[in-house]
Amino acid sequence: MAMLKLNQLTAGQEATVSYVMGDGPVSQRLLEMGMVPGASVKVTQLSPWGGPMMVNLDGYSLSLRSTEADLITLLS
Amino acid sequence: MKPAIAFLGNPNTGKTTLFNALTGLRQQVGNYPGVTVERKHGQLTTPHGVVELIDLPGTYSLAAQSPDEEVVANVLRGHQKGEQPLSGVVVIVDASNLKRNLYLVSQVLEVGLPTIVVLNMMDIAKRRGVTIDVTALEKRLGVPVIPMKANVGGGVTQLNAALMQVVAGQIKIPKPVGLRDPETGKWQSGRTDACGDHPIAQEAVARYNWIRGVLHGIVFQVPSTRSHFSDRLDKVLTHRVWGTVIFVIVMLFMFQAIYSWAGPLQDMIDNGVSALGEWVGSWMPSGVLKDLVQDGVIGGVGSVLVFLPQIVFLFLFIAFLEDCGYMARAAFLMDRLFARIGLSGKSFIPMLSSFACAIPGVMATRTIENRRDRFVTILVSPLMSCSARLPVYTLLIAAFVPSVTWMGGLLGFQGAMLFAMHALGFAVAIPIVWILKRTVLKGATPPFVMELPSYKMPSLKLVGWRALDRAKTFVQSAGTIILAMSVVIWALSYFPTADHNYFAMMGHAIEPLVKPLGWDWRIGMSVLAAFPAREVVIAAMATSFNVNVADGDDSSGILQALQNATWPDGAPLFGLAVAMSVMIFFALCCQCGATVAIIRRETNSWKWAGFAFAYMTILAYLAAAIVYQVMAYFGVGI
Amino acid sequence: MTAQFVIVGVVIVGAVVYVSCRLWKEWRHSQSGCSHCPANHLNSKK
Ligand SMILES: Nc1nc2c(ncn2[C@@H]2O[C@H](COP(=O)(O)OP(=O)(O)OP(=O)(O)O)[C@@H](O)[C@H]2O)c(=O)[nH]1
Ligand SMILES: [Mg+2]
Q1: Contacts of B293 (CB under 8 A, 6+ apart)
Q2: Are B151 and B17 in contact (CB under 8 A)?
Q3: B:564-623 residues touching chain C, CB 8 A cutoff
Q4: pLDDT tens by residue, B24-57
Q5: How many domains, in total, are found in chain C?
Q6: B11 near B39, Cβ under 8 Å?
Q7: Is chain C adjacent to chain A, meaning 3+ CB pairs within 8 angstroms?
Q8: Cα torsion through B575, B576, B579, B581, rounded to 10
Q9: Topology of the domain covering A3-75
Q10: With contact defined as beta carbons under 8 Å apart, do B488 and C15 qualify?
Q11: Which helix (H) or strand (E) holds B423?
């Protein structure tokens, strides 16, 4: 089964975080900022052609690029 | 020694607002993450003596990734050079976003210092329908918890009392959270699945589990179906097309307003200066002293002072942008472009700050994790047109750009030109970043992860203070360094004789150098005199173009002097082409000793400071020469 | 006349000394990492 990633969601979709891949500084920061298993994310805005996306993470607004969103696996 | 207490917390939670409320200082506050980038000291006088308060940059975690976050970790652990060990810490948390904010709290509780938790932004939490059982939270955390509305000072008395207890040693060191197995050192995350391998993930999961436990049953949220005002505003303001269009239109209005609204105020100051000059002329006996007072002092300082209204206007606008929450959105909008050239949208915030002044802009790069990316941002920040360039632009545009306006004065030629001058530095920075990132500061494109704070109505008080502080600095520098420089320039152009003076001698010597830019020696010398500080150019022009403050038939003495200036053969000196070449030179040149000094400090190397100075000066010279020569070739604006 | 020249001379020397001292002081201060002043260190007199 293919895994669902945060950068595969479309605007308005909601999901639950499964885990964050990698152990680099970006993964660490994402985890510290609340991208932990069980957290709820909702995509509030997408910008086409490689621009960053905006998500609502447990009540606050966070922006990240598709490359960073690719690290975040969701429960499907 | 005075006991020291540090303020820390996530970015943008109101640490500096609270620090200012307690110390009476006016450190900068703004509604975006990364306003404070270094430690700031202030004092709180209490019945039991003076306490040293330390305001720190915001951080999400004690595992620092950028220079500003390192300072927090170092101060907290007592490793910061020149800083004494702390007597206690105050962790400021955003009550409307408790969950994420408690992550840092869980780390601070393990440091082993007396701790106070401040629940700030209670008003926003309440508006969002969040209620918190503070007593229960206090019990679960084992430290005092104080609800607060720092922007209106609600809760400051209670915090004062708690700080007293810290000083008196009445607050116990909190019990460590105990999330690690004491024997194996393993994090107790209770998970062994795929993500469980990395200790980093283990720690985060363990801490968030702890947070869930702490908050369980004591935080209530009324579910709201209505989408937040902020989210709706974001749909428009960060739209990839409309967002940019709106931004440009707002900027055009703003720059036109500098003309339409600040103009009349400027005329008033100008009239005052002329009246003063006339009055002095009416009673002082003629002679060298009168010339010094009239031409050197009043002429020099007065010609600079008239730009006060413009500076205040610009700062009112910048302060508004900073406090409404737009800064982070601008970074979001810019990220796509910045990713292309090898940076992230984060670098746009220091660049925006540089439109006020490059010094805080260069400092603001401390939020950038990667050293090379930080250096690239430092090197291009001074290209943004700071407020010290504003007088030159407004003067030359007023003199040589027609004042055509549309829509009842809302949009106009002059405002558009001023906007273009401000856009120029940014447009030039893009290819420079691209080149730097591929040559001397090579590196991968950094990631972009950034919190976007909610929009809020800017506080009138904050906006007013910021403009007032800037006005004070401006007047102060006019009365000190600019006054002194004016006197020196006047003396050089007065001795040995008025016709054959040192200023002119030096000027004639350098004239061949500035000829390709379309300048004569007077412009050349005025620009040269502005290298330590840009504002001096106006005073120097007033002196070298012999502006006589006393014959005040018209208020715009310097403006007319420039319009009427000629070459020795009688051909007019200035036209749009020369005005453009002077403005472009100013836009791109690093004429600011303080900026060079701050780059040297922030990069800790003379090499980079020298590099910034050299590349900007060469670039300014070439660009000004090319623009002038092209315009002259086609006979435009001569 | 001579008195005027003396005053003017003093003012000019004063101005030169002031400019050099001020630039020197600001330079020293900018390298000191002073943590008391606002982000724009020129804003402060400390
Ligand atoms: N509504 C509300 N706004 C507040 C409160 N406290 C601070 N603010 C606002 O929140 C914003 C951030 O305040 P700062 O004091 O700059 O925050 P900071 O924690 O110092 O931020 P950094 O230095 O970037 O880490 C400003 O716009 C303040 O006016 C509060 O209690 N209620
Ligand atoms: Mg702050």
Answers
A1: B280, B284
A2: yes
A3: 593-594, 597-598, 600-601
A4: 999 999 999 999 999 999 999 888 889 999 999 9
A5: 1
A6: no
A7: no
A8: -110
A9: SH3 type barrels. (2.30.30)
A10: yes
A11: helix B413-438
Query: Judging by DSSP bridges, how do beta strands B4-9 and A14-20 pair with one another?
Result: unpaired
Whether the CB-CB separation of B606 and B600 falls below 8 Å is answered with yes
Mark the residues whose beta carbon lies below 5 A from ion ligand 2. B 15-16, 35-36
Q: Which of B7, B8, B29 to mutate to test the pocket of ligand 1 (most atoms within 8 A of CB)?
A: B29
Peptide bond into B3 cis (omega under 30): no
Cα dihedral across residues A25, A26, A29, A34: positive or negative? negative
C-alpha to C-alpha distance for B177 and B207, rounded to whole angstroms = 9
Helices (H), B78-117: 98-108
Please give the distance, rounded to the nearest whole angstrom, from the Cα atom of residue B322 to the centre of ligand 2: 13
SS3 state at B154: strand
User: What gap in Å lies between CA B74 and CA B90, rounded to an integer?
Assistant: 16
**Alpha-carbon separation of residue B575 from B253, B389, B488, B534, B583 (angstroms):** 26, 20, 29, 22, 12
Domain coordinates of chain B in residue numbers?
4-178
b/e map of B348-383 (b: 16 or more CB within 10 Å)?
A: bbbbbbbbbbbbbbbbbbbbbbbebbbbbbbbbbbb
Question: pLDDT exceeding 90 applies to what percent of chain B?
Answer: 64
How confident is chain B (638 residues) per 10-residue block, as mean pLDDT? 92 96 92 94 88 95 95 92 90 95 95 95 91 94 95 92 90 80 72 63 91 92 72 84 86 85 87 88 85 87 91 92 92 92 95 93 95 97 94 93 80 90 96 96 94 92 92 91 91 84 92 94 93 88 75 62 89 92 96 91 93 97 97 86
Query: Going by beta carbons, is chain B in contact with chain C, meaning 3 or more pairs sit under 8 Å apart?
Result: yes
**Bridging pattern class, strands A4-5 and A72-75:** antiparallel
Three-state secondary structure call for residue B226: coil
pLDDT (tens digit per residue) in B599-615: 999 999 999 999 999 99
Q: Is-contact B329 B237, C-beta < 8 A?
A: yes
Q: How far apart are CA A63 and CA A49, in angstroms?
A: 15
Can you give the residue range of the structural domain that contains C25? 2-42
- Residues β-bridged to residue A19: A73
Domain B4-178: which CATH number of 1.50.10.20, 3.40.50.300, 3.40.50.1580, 3.90.1150.10: 3.40.50.300
Residue of chain B nearest C16, judged by CA positions: B488
Among the bound ligands, name the one nearest to the CA of residue B68: 1
Confirm if B55 and B15 have CB atoms less than 8 A apart: yes
C-alpha–C-alpha distance, residues B503 and B526, integer Å: 10
